[in-house]
Amino acid sequence: MCGICGIINLNKQPVDESKLHLMMRTMKHRGPDDEGVFAKDYIGLGFVRLSILDLSSAGHQPMVSKDGRYVIVLNGEIFNYIELREELKDFYLFTSNSDTEVLLASYMKWREHCLDRLNGMFAFAILDTTTNEFFAARDRFGIKPFYYYQDQNQFIFASDIPPILKIVEHKREPENSVIFDYLVFNRTNHSGKTFFRSIQKLQHGHTLKVKSGLVNISRWYNLPDQISQYKSFRFNEKDFLEEFKNSINLQLRSDVPVGTCLSGGLDSSAITSLVLNNKQDVDLHSFSAVYQKGQKGDESEYIAEFKEKNLKIHYTFPSDNTLLEDLNNFIMSLSEPVPTTSIYAEYKVMELAKNHCTVLLNGQGADELLAGYHYFYGYYFRDLVNSNSWGKFLNELFQYIRTQRSVYGLKTLVFSINPRSLRHFKKHDFLDQAFYNNFYNKSNSLLDDFYKSKSLKEFLINHFEYKFEHNLLWADKTGMQFSLETRFPFLDHNLVEKTLSIPTENYIKNGYTKVIMRNALKGILPEKIRMRKDKVGFSTPESDWFKNRKLQAILEDVIESDSFKGRGYFDVKQCKKEFKSFQNYHKYNPEFWKWINLELWFRTFID
Predict the structure, then answer these.
(1) Phi, psi (5° rounding) for residue 411?
(2) Same-domain status, 499 and 389
């Protein structure tokens, strides 16, 4: 886990190394342990290192191949580097124990086909110094970031946006289509666009090549194609457990301490339980965000199920006051707006963990893999209706209402059946009507690809394509702000592909989600957690926080400001009316946070 950056002068002018150093300083928090630069002619690569595997100087980057031809910078981890190293030992003479050298040798032997052999999370770049050909790639699901800027004279890339902003001399402009998706759908990072019009993001599962001044992007990994190979595959709860254990064991490979994020939910508890179960003598630390008992987001009663186990539990207590203290740094560290303060809770967990470990195992991915969100019920109900399974539909509907005490799944069913023209979102009440109509009526990947899914299985797959990546990038940015690497055992591609190949009743049954995992973890996971009915998610008591007068003052300042009025996004009269209602009747609206975050982002990065 590190930070990579680079400059390619397409006009063949010599690269300015001072610009590389400026980019590296801007993201030094991503790699406080070491740094390096490689420059040749009109191409330069920069690197800041967070040492995880092979802590010696042998793991220094940029790393040059033995013959001097290839130079690599890698952000991330190749978890199966030991197995690949064994396979390559007769081809390449290794002088380090790092996964970077294994990746470099893999590329030298198999070129871009090496990607199919990698089990890991990565964004890397390799320069062929003989031909000056540049090759970059990003992992299958988008765990590690790769941002870039391109004009007729230069191509610039980095692991984060601020390093690029530091050296690109042009007027910063917002990307309004991304702001629309943020305000209307609560979605970010679902395409190659960013909140900055001039900065792009290499999509997950894609490669990028620069040759003879031309930039070419292509796809190397497509999840549906991989799932199709398992059409007649049998995969039960025992198989799931074995594959999940294999993933955890691979991701425990580290030369520095590893801890776990522990929310008290099913997913993070599953990882923590298996680590404890597989390694009884492990000195394991967990990190949790908790609140007052009964407050939204507090899961301390479930975290307490681990108190008698060989686990050192650490707590952080995010609050309205800590949010006020951290607000500017938080917005700066994310570099793009986020739709809820739940990401702030993650930020505080990372801050807590930094003094105890360098690697954290995170439960992200299970909800997308195993239909963990409430709206998945609607698409499951749609499957049953489309197959005329009326008896099963009525039973599942009854069990859902009984166990979840919600009708949200029914709303999702109705929404999924409606044509695009009827899929309007209530959030547009606070938006400028012309802004809303303009972008709603245009081609939109969320409306035209994500929400048009015709089955639960298609919807799950589309989550990996259009919805999921923002969670991973938030975890990357909050973790790296405190020099922490975040790993995701649910996202081992073998586990993902096999789990998404099985019938949907393995995901939802009798009102419960994640059925195959619940069954697999019987006797391993505390029963109170294994059979939880509620779905809390990683949330905060945001509505309570906004009772704080200082937060309200910030919100009022935003709404009343000339800059907010002049953005062209909001019906300011409606925003003021909603804020007044909150002041008088304490009726909180989650849109408040987005108004604050977006406006402060503008003031920090654009204005």
Answers:
(1) -60, -40
(2) no
